[in-house]
Every structure is written in structure tokens, then in C-alpha cells.
Amino acid sequence: MASNFSSVPILDYSLASDPARKPEFLAQLRHALINVGFLYLANPPVAREDIDAVIAYAPRLFDLPQNTKDRIRMANSEHFLGYSRLGAEITKGQTDQREQYDFATPYEARWKPGEPEYLRLWGPSQWPDEELLPGFKDTFLRYLAQTEKLSYEFIGLLAEAFGLPREIMRGFYETDGPTPHRAKVVKYPPLDDLASNQGVGPHFDGGFLTFLLQASPHPGLQVQNLSGQWIDAPPIPGTFVVNIGKALETVTQGLARATSHRVLSPPKGSTPRYSIPFFQNIAQRISVKDIQLEFPPEILQLKEKRGEVGTTDSVNYTEYGLLPTGQVNLIGRVKSHPDVAERHYPDLFKQFFPHGLPAQGSAY
Ligand SMILES: O=C(O)CCC(=O)C(=O)O
Ligand SMILES: [Fe+2]
């Protein structure tokens, strides 16, 4: 019988460090990974004062004068890092109604001519001037470092929940150098003057795990269940929303589900919604088919019990079976930010946009 879900489960991270209650946590985690693909994580090991501080900074980032935001626009960056104006991003061919900054964990650009083009994707972030937003960069980096650490601890717990050794996933990210991760600070304006209510259109996340901080009390995030219905995932203070990306779904042979999700714009007259997603990545040169995980048969059976996953409204990621992760990432960025691609990756731009820049979808 197909299992389905009508709400997103809440897991308490403090159980994971209590030996007596860890089995309970792992059982809940296994259920959430296999049957839902989303969960709330209460009591995450990220300092509350840093969480509160990044939440407080979010509106201030967008209240900066337009010309100072544009100075660090994404189009400047071959790493697709920086500021994107409202309406600059495309999901599934439609314009998203959100304004955002993309930042990454610290990373020195390493690409050299002759190496694969996708290695150019990662490099330093563009930060707002310190005088304009004192303390933001340091606070955000501290937040990123803690969230990154949590993401690796969580991958260890995921392995345990699936009956594997805790360290088995390391091969995906411990390679010749650090694996960079991306985060965004996002503002969804209310519907008043928008062309549509697509805050962000239906999609899967690409990488391993996403840790989403809902940074204002607005609902709007929705998750698609197995029969295609949209289920609300409203903010719960003090939690992260954790979900699975397509790379992790692929390496776990579909045990951990990547679940389609979207954000609807806040209603007319409302204040803006803010959110801060962190996207855990894996090493760029690795193809997900390079490492085969052997799951115990009784775990694989749990997937059969789930039944067929119904249709989703999201784009798919069939490339993961074929290409290095870095190339899959780069293609995703090109499709989402064609104007940045046109400037820095002209060949890929022509391949995906043979008729030129779409009417919408220009970061600048
Ligand atoms: O803003 C949110 O709540 C979700 C954003 C999201 O799904 C994404 O950026 O991938
Ligand atoms: Fe997402």
C-alpha cells in the first residue's frame, strides 16, 4: 500500500546525542527520509544568537539602496554568487517573484585553463560593504560554518538510519580540497504588484541536503505529497526545514526521497516573507554513479512499501546518472540565471537558450 503524508514530521535533534533515545530518532529519520523527503529539525546545534542575528539581518540586506545592491550583482560573478533583482530567476521556464543574495562557504577560485569548465563555478562570494551592514559578513560566515558542520553530522545519521556505517558517505565530499556549499538570503514580496504568485516554482533541490531557515512568520512553503497534493510547511520557530536533493536521492537508490516543493508569494497587503536556505553540496569531480552503496535488503524493502511516487510538477535531474556533479550544478545555474550564463559561459548559454535571452530572467 502506498504511504502518503499530510504534514511534515518534526524531529528533535537532541535525541540523536542521547544514547538511550538515538534509536527512536533514527527510526523517525528513516520514516521521514523514505516516505516524506522533508522534516523539521528542532534543537539544531547552531547557536540561537547566530540564528536570531541572521534573521534580523535579512530585511536590512534588502533595504540597502538599489545601487549598492547592484554593485554586487550576480552578473559580475562567474561563480553565480551575488545579488539578483526581483524577477531575475527562472524555475521551470517561469519567472520567480523573489529577490535574493547567493553566498557560499569560503572558497578560493582554483580553476585553470584546460580544466573542466564546471570547476569555475566555485569561488569567493560578493559581500555588501562592511560599513553599510556592520557585522553581517562575520555573522553569516559563523552561521554557515555551523550549518555546514550540522550537514555533515546529519549525513552520518542518515547513513546509520539506513543501516550503513556512519562514515560511509565521506567519499562524496572528502576529496582533494574543501567542498563548497551555497546559501541564499531570499525576500518574497507580497502579491501587490507582482506578475504572478510564483515565489519560487515547483522544483527539486539539486545536491545532498538542504537546511532551510524560515526567517519570518509567513506561510508559503509547500511540499508535494505522493499523490501530488500540496501540503503546507509553515514556519516553526527554532527549527530548520531539512529536505533531500536529487544527488542524495540518486546515491541512495531512491531511499531518501527528493520531494517537489514551491513557495507561494505572501498575500496582498502582507509584509514580505524571508528565508535562508543552505544547500549542502558534494565534490564537483564526483559522479554519483562512482560510489555504490550496499543497503541491507530489509531497508530496501521499506522503499517498496512506500509505493510509486506519483507525478510531480518539478523539473527532473536525469543528468545525475551521467555527468560529474559539478557539470550538473553548472547546468542548473545556467538554466536559472541565463543572463549570468550569457556573460560567463557563452557556449552553454547558446546550448540551453538557442533563441537568446528570455524576455524575463535577467539579473541585470
Ligand atoms: O524559501 C523557501 O522557503 C524555499 C526556497 C527553496 O526551496 C529553494 O530556494 O530551493
Ligand atoms: Fe528548494
Major sheet details: 8 strands, mixed
Q: What is the element string, with H for helices and E for strands?
A: EHEHHEEEEHEEEEEEHEEHHHH
Summarize the amount of helix as a percent range.
Answer: 25-40%
Basic shape: globular
- How many structural domains? 1
Low-pLDDT segments: none
Which descriptors would you attach to this protein?
alpha+beta, binds 2-oxoglutaric acid, 29% helix, binds fe (ii) ion, eight-stranded mixed β-sheet, 9 helices, Jelly Rolls, globular, 364 residues
Protein described:
- This protein is an alpha+beta fold and 364 residues long.
- It has one domain (10-362): Jelly Rolls.
- Helix content is 29%, strand content 18%.
- The strands form three sheets. Strands 1-2-12-9-14-7-6-3 form an eight-stranded mixed sheet.
- A hairpin with a 2-residue loop joins strand 4 and strand 5.
- Helix 1 (22-36) packs across helix 4 (136-161), helix 2 crosses helix 4 and helix 8 (338-344) crosses helix 9.
- The relative contact order is 0.18.
- The model has no long low-confidence stretch (mean pLDDT 91).
- Bound molecules: 2-oxoglutaric acid and fe (ii) ion.
- Pfam families: 2OG-FeII_Oxy, DIOX_N.
- It comes from Fomitopsis schrenkii.
Short note summarizing the structure:
The chain is α+β, with helices and mostly antiparallel strands.
Topology:
Elements: E1 10-12, H1 22-36, E2 38-42, H2 48-62, H3 66-71, E3 82-84, E4 90-91, E5 94-95, E6 99-104, H4 136-161, E7 182-188, E8 198-203, E9 209-214, E10 221-224, E11 230-232, E12 239-244, H5 246-251, E13 261-264, E14 273-279, H6 297-306, H7 325-336, H8 338-344, H9 346-352
Parallel strand pairs: 1-2
Antiparallel strand pairs: 2-12, 3-6, 4-5, 6-7, 7-14, 8-13, 9-12, 9-14, 10-11, 10-13
The structure holds 2-oxoglutaric acid (AKG) and fe (ii) ion.
